[in-house]
Design brief:
By secondary structure, this protein is an all-alpha fold. The protein is 86% helix and 0% strand. The chain has helices spanning 2-46, 48-51, 55-75, 79-107, 113-137, 143-161.
């Protein structure tokens, strides 16, 4: 049971880091997308004196920007998605803290294996709800973020627990 708790604890910390890095990347993507929209929208408005002689070109620019904005909502996350990811990160932090507390209690012999197992599966029920949120917002994984999250997670456990015997 001790190893099972440890593995879930490591996995949940990894997911906290992964979601945090993913959120940061998506916010950056959103920022650049909004800048792109702003620049092209502004150029359309400011370029009106030049484009009024060629209304077809002005109409095409407006049409393209409308299509980009519509497609962008599917490709670039919005505030609702950011809030869901933040909720998942907060939930994983709570989940991790419960597992860590269980691990300490079991490792120190404050609870027996039967009680640890019962508490463990009670805590694991929470992850199902978190995974629903994560699966809704993350459509594909990012290898660079995975590597970064694994490194951060490994460093965290090496620093906090100061050993490699439980990994």
């Amino acid at each position: 049971m001790r190893e099972r708790i440890w593995v879930e604890m490591v996995d949940s910390k990894y997911k906290i880091f992964y979601l945090g890095f993913y959120l940061s990347k998506q916010r950056t993507k959103n920022k650049y997308f909004n800048i792109f929209i702003l620049i092209f929208s502004t150029s359309g408005v400011l370029g009106w004196p030049l484009l009024k002689e060629i209304p077809l070109v002005a109409s095409i620019i407006v049409m393209i920007m409308s299509i980009v904005k519509l497609i962008g909502n599917e490709l670039v996350p919005n505030d609702t998605t950011f809030k869901k990811i933040e909720t998942a990160v907060d939930s994983y932090c709570d989940f991790f803290n419960k597992l860590e507390n269980l691990w300490y209690e079991y490792d120190r012999g404050l609870i027996d294996e039967t009680k640890a197992q019962r508490l463990f599966y009670s805590i694991m029920k929470d992850e199902k709800d978190i995974n629903k949120i994560v699966n809704e917002v993350i459509k594909s994984s990012d290898n660079k973020i995975q590597v970064k999250a694994e490194e951060r997670s490994t460093n965290y456990f090496n620093t906090i627990f100061n050993n490699n015997t439980n990994e």
